[in-house]
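Title: Prediction job returns without error message
Component: structure pipeline
Severity: low
Priority: P3
Assignee: unassigned

Description:
Job completed but the reporter wants confirmation the result is attached to the right record. Sequence as submitted:
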Amino acid sequence: LKNEGVESIIATAAVGSINRKMQPGNLVLLTDFIDFTRGREETFTAHSFVDVSQPYSSLLIKKILNAAVKLRIKAHPGATYVCTEGPRFETKAEIKMFGKLGADVVGMTQVPEVVLAAEACIYYAVIGVVTNFAAGISPKKISAEEVVRVMEDRKESLSKLLELVIKAL
């Protein structure tokens, strides 16, 4: 992407909520991450040190928030994301631990993408769609169908938000 002239990436992600204030159907803007993946390639070069102290672009996040306000879409301005290996959902004990570590949401897709974008010096932001409460937060079992349904329900508003943000870039 960098070789093609890409300067910014805005991605979307389905996330489970650990923070009860971030409810299914809400949008969250990721501001930090905790990596619990194993064995994923996280660099383009073998000898690269990448600063990820601010992994998500505050400039893009601001533009997304401004667009969300214009469209009257509720978006939480900051969330810490914990990335797990997947494809399974997490256990109640894992979610409890992640909450104690400061995670707001959980998912399986942000690492290594966010790290690779930082290494390539591409501005990167993610709009998370809360699809469910994580294991142990809600008494009901989590299902892939629930995740897909909520993503489908948010598709139109997410498309409008992305369109407005892209116009503002």
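Comment from assignee: result matches the submitted record. Residues 144-168 form the longest helix (25 residues).
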